[in-house]
């Protein structure tokens, strides 16, 4: 779980932030509530100082966006990364960011090596220029609680592209983004390419034409590095699925085991906000896994692999993440047992001493198989993309072309929604975090949690000279690719003009 239960006591948060950690104990189960601060135009000014403080004092910041659409899905999966970049750019120029989630994680060394204070914000935004909004995205968002009335009435206005004059003193989302750059903290995202391109175009400057220039700019914008939890989950932690909800839950469970075993583990604290702010805070529950679950229910293969299923809540099969993880772990255990038996037999035949089995060494990330077709997820993605090119580009058939990457706009990743008022998760068969309105905030929190947890497994690393988590440093996940996008400045690529101007602004007036 996301909070320390070592002694069951309520832990005191950092003095500067005041208040009490929000943990409740019910029997053996610990229910953690994550406060998500809703920021919109009527409280943006009031929240400005806390936003800035949270960003400036953070050890790292996790970000997530909710978008008005993405455009043509198949071009977003183009095998040529340069082409793929161009398609995302086109989407970022024509679509907008509906909400921005920020989760600031501040290390608290006095409370233990892996203790963080987490502050989570969900900013509702309104792009003041014309933008395309896709019916499919709207439909999905409305079905999942996104309130468009509220967005139009209370969204914080912003404009895209380059600055209009000197904006550095204004209190705007663009200035907030500039402050994020000034903070020089690691930036954490989940499947981050789309987010990065949208953030750049919407809050920073016009996008450069080439991918090389884009990554060169990013390098200077985020000198402490960019981290992608989808990359970390597949290539580093080697989880069999890597959609956000799965990865988060898996990390939460593993962290719980480590805590129970007395091993190094992640502990989190949250601020308790003053009563005057309560109206703007949504407490989201992280639920402990139910100990007794009926294993007779069959799992939905689609949801299990991708976090999404075309049938949605109508699906007769289970979308329960804990059940899915239980099943995956049982499969892994079964394989391990068989391998051990095989190895034992082999050693007996060769007359070798019964020692140590070697772990399997595969090149790609481990993947679960879907629908018995024996294809890996990325192969399906590719196949779908190819299939789409052959047939008419029409989206409908409505399924696998939307997987993972295409999901971004409509967020089918977390298709089933739990109400935040159900801490026990009693009636809801799919205890999934997130409703439409606060999803960006909570997704950013989950993303940050995963990265912090990955940090625990890397052991002590108070090495100030090197990057934070070297294996994941500046690697951005690419759907359908065995290698990530490396964020680097090559000797052949120069940074863009608009970016250089922004850099002057960022460092000139601070
Ligand atoms: Zn299903």
UniProtKB/TrEMBL annotation:
<dbReference type="GO" id="GO:0034472">
    <property type="term" value="P:snRNA 3'-end processing"/>
</dbReference>
<keyword id="KW-0539">Nucleus</keyword>
<dbReference type="GO" id="GO:0000175">
    <property type="term" value="F:3'-5'-RNA exonuclease activity"/>
</dbReference>
<protein>
    <recommendedName>
        <fullName>Target of EGR1 protein 1</fullName>
    </recommendedName>
</protein>
<dbReference type="InterPro" id="IPR051181">
    <property type="entry name" value="CAF1_poly(A)_ribonucleases"/>
</dbReference>
<keyword id="KW-0597">Phosphoprotein</keyword>
<comment type="function">
    <text>Inhibits cell growth rate and cell cycle. Induces CDKN1A expression as well as TGF-beta expression. Mediates the inhibitory growth effect of EGR1. Involved in the maturation of snRNAs and snRNA 3'-tail processing.</text>
</comment>
<dbReference type="InterPro" id="IPR012337">
    <property type="entry name" value="RNaseH-like_sf"/>
</dbReference>
<dbReference type="InterPro" id="IPR006941">
    <property type="entry name" value="RNase_CAF1"/>
</dbReference>
<dbReference type="GO" id="GO:0005730">
    <property type="term" value="C:nucleolus"/>
</dbReference>
<dbReference type="GO" id="GO:0017069">
    <property type="term" value="F:snRNA binding"/>
</dbReference>
<comment type="subunit">
    <text>Interacts with U1, U2, U4, U5 and U6 snRNAs.</text>
</comment>
<comment type="similarity">
    <text>Belongs to the CAF1 family.</text>
</comment>
<feature type="compositionally biased region" description="Basic residues">
    <location>
        <begin position="336"/>
        <end position="348"/>
    </location>
</feature>
<dbReference type="GO" id="GO:0016607">
    <property type="term" value="C:nuclear speck"/>
</dbReference>
<dbReference type="InterPro" id="IPR036397">
    <property type="entry name" value="RNaseH_sf"/>
</dbReference>
<keyword id="KW-0862">Zinc</keyword>
<dbReference type="GO" id="GO:0008270">
    <property type="term" value="F:zinc ion binding"/>
</dbReference>
<dbReference type="Pfam" id="PF00642">
    <property type="entry name" value="zf-CCCH"/>
</dbReference>
<feature type="region of interest" description="Disordered">
    <location>
        <begin position="382"/>
        <end position="402"/>
    </location>
</feature>
<feature type="zinc finger region" description="C3H1-type">
    <location>
        <begin position="299"/>
        <end position="322"/>
    </location>
</feature>
<dbReference type="GO" id="GO:0015030">
    <property type="term" value="C:Cajal body"/>
</dbReference>
<keyword id="KW-0863">Zinc-finger</keyword>
<keyword id="KW-0007">Acetylation</keyword>
<dbReference type="InterPro" id="IPR000571">
    <property type="entry name" value="Znf_CCCH"/>
</dbReference>
<dbReference type="Pfam" id="PF04857">
    <property type="entry name" value="CAF1"/>
</dbReference>
<keyword id="KW-0479">Metal-binding</keyword>
<feature type="region of interest" description="Disordered">
    <location>
        <begin position="333"/>
        <end position="368"/>
    </location>
</feature>
<feature type="domain" description="C3H1-type">
    <location>
        <begin position="299"/>
        <end position="322"/>
    </location>
</feature>
């Amino acid at each position: 779980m996301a909070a320390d239960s070592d002694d069951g006591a309520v832990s005191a948060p950092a003095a500067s932030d005041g208040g009490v950690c929000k943990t409740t104990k019910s029997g053996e189960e610990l229910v953690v509530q994550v406060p998500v601060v809703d920021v919109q135009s009527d409280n943006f000014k009031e929240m400005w100082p806390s936003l800035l403080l949270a960003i400036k004092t953070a050890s790292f910041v996790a970000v997530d966006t909710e978008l008005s659409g993405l455009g043509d899905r198949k071009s977003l999966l183009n095998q040529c990364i340069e082409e793929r970049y161009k398609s995302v750019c086109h989407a970022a120029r024509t679509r907008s960011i509906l909400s921005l989630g920020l989760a600031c994680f501040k290390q608290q060394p006095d409370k233990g090596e892996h203790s963080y204070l987490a502050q989570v914000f969900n900013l509702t935004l309104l792009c003041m220029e014309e933008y395309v909004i896709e019916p499919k995205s709207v439909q999905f968002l409305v079905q999942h609680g996104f309130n468009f009335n509220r967005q139009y009435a209370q969204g914080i206005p912003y404009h895209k592209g380059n600055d209009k004059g000197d904006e550095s003193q204004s209190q705007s989302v663009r200035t907030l983004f500039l402050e994020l750059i000034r903070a020089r903290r690691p930036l954490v995202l989940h499947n981050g390419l789309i987010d990065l391109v949208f953030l750049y175009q919407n809050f920073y400057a016009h996008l450069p034409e080439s991918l090389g220039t884009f990554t060169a700019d990013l390098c200077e914008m985020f000198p402490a590095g960019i981290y992608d939890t989808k990359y970390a989950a597949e290539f580093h932690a080697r989880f069999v699925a890597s959609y956000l909800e799965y990865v988060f839950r898996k990390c939460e469970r593993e962290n719980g085991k480590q805590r129970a075993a007395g091993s190094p583990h992640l502990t989190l604290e949250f601020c308790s906000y003053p009563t005057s702010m309560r109206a703007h805070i949504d407490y989201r529950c992280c639920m402990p896994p139910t100990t007794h679950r009926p294993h007779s229910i069959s799992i939905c293969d689609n949801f299990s692999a991708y976090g999404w299923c075309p049938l949605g809540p109508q699906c007769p099969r289970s979308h329960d993440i804990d059940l899915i993880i239980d099943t995956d772990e049982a499969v892994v255990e079964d394989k391990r047992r068989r391998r051990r038996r095989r190895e034992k037999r082999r050693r007996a035949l060769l007359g070798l001493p019964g020692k140590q089995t070697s772990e399997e060494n595969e090149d790609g990330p481990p993947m679960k198989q879907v629908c018995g077709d024996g294809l890996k997820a990325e192969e399906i993605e590719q196949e779908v993309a190819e299939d789409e090119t052959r047939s008419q580009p029409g989206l409908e058939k409505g399924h696998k072309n939307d997987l993972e990457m295409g999901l971004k706009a409509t967020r089918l990743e977390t298709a089933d929604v739990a109400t935040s008022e159900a801490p026990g998760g009693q009636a809801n068969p799919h205890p999934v975090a997130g409703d439409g309105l606060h999803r960006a905030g909570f997704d950013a929190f989950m993303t940050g949690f995963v990265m912090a947890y990955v940090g625990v497994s890397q052991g002590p690393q108070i090495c100030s000279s090197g990057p934070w988590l070297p294996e994941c440093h500046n690697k951005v996940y690419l759907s359908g690719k065995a290698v990530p996008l490396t964020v680097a400045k090559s000797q052949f690529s120069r940074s863009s003009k608009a970016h250089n101007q922004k850099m002057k602004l960022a460092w000139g007036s601070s």
